[in-house]
Amino acid sequence: MSEPYEEIVEGETYLRMPPGDRHELICSRLHELIATSLADTSTTRLLPRRSVVQISSGTIVRPDVALVTAATGKIWLLAEIISSDDHRPDTVMKKQLYEELNIPRLWMVDPRYDNVEVYHGSQYGLMLKGILAGKEMLTEPLLPTLKVTIADLFSERPKE
User: SS3 sequence, 45-100?
Assistant: First the structure.
């Protein structure tokens, strides 16, 4: 996506700048890893990157990664890759929205620090389960074959 795009949060429109090259490399890598892990699964669908997702009547977001239940279309995992020059909408506004909606899983992928914050929805809102970095492994029990070290996720080299 090389064009700016809009997101609407509670009726207010935000113009988001096109992501940079590193952001797109990480996004492509994450999509490829998740798509591979879903190869034998018919219960979950991976939406194309930054698909329009209507959260409520006045809120439309475009997450970098969105997984939905095939039967209902309900979102169960979102990932936002933070842009260093435009981080507030992801790290504050959208994270709060996702918490209010009790999204079951949220990954905040942060290239500024090469880490991933993993949140699980609970009766009390989003609970931070861990901040992964370096040689730690990003996994998800509902995607049993998804396994990637954080260093590999953030690697500057395109996958060979």
Answer: EECCCCCCEEEECCEEECCCEEEEECCCCCEEEEEEECCCCCCHHHHHHHHHHHHH
